[in-house]
Amino acid sequence: MKLMPPLRRVLAPLIALPMLLAGCISNPIVTERIDPVAVNQASHEIPGSEILDLWIQIFDPGTLPEKEGEARGLSMDIRNAEARFMPIHLGKTIERSGYWGAVRVVPQGTEGAEVLVTGKILLSDAEQIELHIEASDARGENWFKRDYAHHVDSKDYAHTVRGSEDAFQPLYNKIANDLIAARAELQVKDIQRIREIAELRFAADMAPLAFGDHLLRDPDGKYHVRRLPAADDPMLKRIRAIRDRDYLLIDTLNGHFDQFYRDTWTPYTDWRETRAAEAADLREVEETALNRKILGALAVVGGIALMASTRNSDSVGTQSAKAIAGQMAVLGGAYAVKTGFDKDEQTEIHKAALEELGESFSQEAKPLVVEVDGETHRLTGSAESQYAQWRQLLKKIYATETGFPSRGD
Hints:
By secondary structure, the chain is of the alpha/beta class. Helices cover 54% and strands 13% of the residues. The strands form three sheets. Strands 2-1-3-4-5 form a five-stranded mixed beta sheet. Helix 5 packs across helix 7 (234-309) and helix 7 packs antiparallel against helix 9 (383-402). It is globular and about 80 Å long. The protein starts with a helix and ends in a 7-residue tail after the last helix.
């Protein structure tokens, strides 16, 4: 059948419609699953001289996906909460291995860590998590920089155990084991040097006039010891006393983080389970809607073509039958397209349900009240702000006790 030019102009956009609609469906799951693996356990107690403390910074929350379909039901409130929840859970996973000393979650910008783990959330939508993780030690030596990704479905959330087994536990276990493997490459002398440099970096941050020249930082960002203070150096003793106070504040912050973690576990797990189920439903609805639109559009095309072909029929009866069939195909196809778009309204209902869950999911840092030398101080704002205020307070304490300014300027 050869179509007349006017008819081709009518049918062209209808023929193209299925191809245009095919681009409207949400992206499928693309993240691979990590094989289940247990956290490696230390076979014996590690000597005190070989223990390293490990700190995990609050994660960078990253940004939400730019595509509306991928960001459906997500919010920065949730991301900011995840930026706390994830490092806390990672810390608890690492702690169970028995390979480390104190495992702490710290605000960004914290100075004095022996081993520091930082992370950025690249993707987190309840079905998939992708993290960029970096680990380094006080010397400035990078242990690794890696991306970790894992995906689950809503059924995986039935196997979670409050405070220990997350739906994404294989991802956390793999990070913990990679840290253990990196630590295994260190010799005892390396561990001792890391501990020395960590102390000197803290000292230089607190008292740059007294300790700023003890370390050299090369162009590659590596730290080298120029000289070590005497073991009985009175200024070093003061620094160590201040460092113990710093640990106490960090432990206090970790107490608040742990409370946040406990309070968050159930609503966060429920939100993710619901969101994963809703997202799967959305994909199914979109697929059904897409199929209806495509089939409907093709029926319209076929109906119009059938009606056009009646003009070349010899039999009046045949012309009439074809015309009726063509009209029915057009009407049926149009209805299928309409019901396909009606299905889109269901996706909006799911989206609204997800966003309602997301908007209620937010956590602010609680004010901290600390007592130093009989004086009470109130630390407010975010965890980073609270810790920055605390550091300034410690520097004032050092200046008061020694009579020297804490900063070189």
